[in-house]
Amino acid sequence: MMKNILTLILFFALYVSLIAQQSPKKNYSKLNINCKTCHTCDVPTKTDPCLVTCPRDKMTTVYQSADKTPETIVLDQLVNSYGPVYFPHKAHAQMAEMGGGCESCHHHNTSGPILKCSSCHETSRKRGDIGIPDLKAAYHRLCIDCHREWSHNVSCNTCHVPKKDLKNVKDEKAQKKYYSKNYPIILEPSKIVFKTNYEKGNLVTFYHNEHNNKFGLTCTSCHKNESCATCHDLSKNSNTKEKTITVTKSNSDNHKKCSSCHQIENNCSMCHQDKVAEPFNHGKQTGWALNRFHINLSCAACHGEKLPYKKLDTKCISCHKNWNNETFKHSITGLQLNEIHSQLSCEDCHTNNNYSAKTTCNGCHDNYSFPKQVPGKIVGKLN
Amino acid sequence: MSGSSRRDFLKTSALIGAGITGLSISSAKAAPKNILSENRMGVLVDTTVCIGCRQCEWACKEAHDLPAGNIASYENREVFYNMRRPSENALTVVNQYSAGKGSDLPVDVKVQCMHCDHPACVSACIVGALSKEENGSVIWDTDKCIGCRYCMVACPFQIPAFQYNKALDPKIMKCDFCFERTKEGKLPACVEICPVEALTYGPRTELISIAKDRIKRDPDRYIDHIYGEKEAGGTAWMYLGNQEFAKLDFPEPGDKPAVGVSESIQHGIFAYFVPPVSLYALLGGIMWINKHRKSSDEEEK
Fold it and tell me: A134 pLDDT exceeds 80?
């Protein structure tokens, strides 16, 4: 009997241990997760799972915003006849946001921390894996293609300072200055005339800077995945403020940039005209000229972000809702009200809330009129 | 009388023929060194990576004791206005061509000896001065060279150059795959200096798989063709590009070794000594007929 019980216990123990060994494990390789989310190497093994360091929110990854990246990175691993290269990282990271982002340089990086270039690219050209370029080549390949696009040369001295010249430029600040001489100016044309093949109006005039200022646009709002030479080019005259471009690209490509903000369907004449268009003039186009304060505002400041813009009336109070005789500083109009007048309500002089019309003094005074009689002191140009 | 003399003539010519055939067999034993090693090295030139800095030109001259000048002078882009060929003063040159697919940048192509797997120059060299070495390089022995310049004619890539302007001891000049440097374990000078590693030095078989991998991974960047993998029977130097190689002034020698052409001409002329013997036999025959006619004419008189 005892023997039977013992045998049963033994079988039970064996069964349990077998079950325990076969406990269902999550098969991560079948889950919809990129392997590189957790592993740094291509073939993780049991002995070397090469897991990424955690927590991920505390490390620099390829999903970092450009503004949070280091300003300058010193590349000094291969210092030979040239000094170290002071690489303006943040500036390049910001430019990369117009294209492939961090991964345009930090390619094949895991979603874990940013890997050093030298963790894949060997420093020696005589090496085992010739399928991957060596470190020198990797650096140069990343830099040179863009740099020769705008500089039109492959001179070493664009990025490198020969060691013999380094004696004079010892500190980092001076070195940065040395490099800055090679930076290309951003070519920002104020006016571009596109020659198109649209019959009913072949010319499209685009006021580049005006568009940027008025609509509060940054470079990345419109420029994406373009050649660096579009904006930087040493061979082009930086003073060219006006240029004419004959459009050769396909129709949809041309319209893409405009149509992201503008309603373009059945609205061709908004841009396509027979002659070169004048810059936007609020007074001419809407009948309400902008004064010296309004002219500096972006369109959205009054009209709101949403397109098409809502129409506004000319009443100040429509926008300046908190203005009254106490909060409004009348002196900015060029007229400082005296004590008596400053206590009046606005409508006493500006009838019907119409501030562009002539003021009336008849409410209190007989035979008084502005500007013959002034309810205070003229302190500036009236408008 | 005349019959016996003809028999004599044929006898002698047959003897001479046999003698020379025997000679040619013995000389075949001393054929030029022509090794096609499994592990022969090569270089993969990626023309889409090359930036045309021309530092390889400078390094090559330095390594071969040719007047190289200042390296900074190689930054001059104006040389690209003209198409250049390797010469006795520059064993490698870089030419620039208009952009291919996938890029607006010009394409730069380095030109030098391709180091054929079946080199026509080695086959054409009548003194065995040229040889294909175990490491893949095609080199020449200046002591043996007699300056016949057959190699220049035989080369399907028109690479060997001749020091025409040297009155005494002119030499055949071409890329030697830095034979002396690689023997010491160094990289070829051009490969070593290339700032972007457009030139990858390694075993030829490995380079082919690397090249195929690059084409597979980036089909927008490359055309599906490794120039030199099969051209002229295969070459040690191979090229990747983003446009047809004919547009980059690469010759189209076909996939068969160029040796076939030069050897078939040479061997055709001298094959088993039959053509020369038959030529002399024909000439002899004409002579004999003429002589016979002359004597019969005289007899008639």
Answer: yes
Residue B25 — very low, low, confident or very high, per pLDDT cuts 50/70/90? Answer: very low
Q: What count of other Cβ atoms lies within 10 Å of the Cβ of residue B166?
A: 10
DSSP output for A293-341? TGGGS-HHHHH-SSSSPPP--S-HHHH-TT-STTT--GGGGTEEE-HHH
Grade residue A18 by pLDDT with cuts at 50, 70 and 90.
low
Check if the beta carbon of residue B119 is closer than 8 Å to that of residue B130.
yes
Taking Cα atoms as reference points, which of A190, A214, A280, A201 lies closest to residue A247? A201
Cβ(A282)–Cβ(A293) below 8 Å: no
Q: Do B197 and A227 touch (CB under 8 A)?
A: no
Nearest CA among B201, B202, B229 for reference residue B215:
B229
Strands A272-273 and A242-246: unpaired
Order of all β-strands in the sheet with B237-240: B199-203, B41-46, B237-240
Query: Interhelix angle for B259-270 vs B274-300, to 10°?
Result: 30
Q: Which residue of A has its CA nearest to B78?
A: A153
A130 with B104: Cβ contact below 8 A: no
Q: Where are the domains of chain A?
A: 59-180, 191-280, 316-378
Contact B196 A148 (CB under 8 A): no
The owner of tokens 């470190």 is A135
CATH of domain A191-280: 3.90.10
Residue spans per domain, chain B: 1-30, 41-120+158-261
pLDDT band at A249 (very low <50, low <70, confident <90, very high): low
ipTM confidence: 0.77
What band does A20 get if pLDDT is binned at 50, 70 and 90?
A: low
For domain B41-120+158-261, the question of CATH label 3.30.70.20 is answered with yes
CATH of A59-180, one of 3.90.10.10, 3.40.190.10, 3.30.750.24, 3.40.50.2300: 3.90.10.10
The partner residue sitting opposite B51, judged by closest CB among A133, A154, A227, is A154
Q: For residue A260, give how far its alpha carbon lies from the nearest alpha carbon of chain B (Å).
A: 26
Range list of H helices, A234-311: 251-259, 282-286, 299-303
Which phi and psi angles does B107 have, rounded to 5°? -105, 130
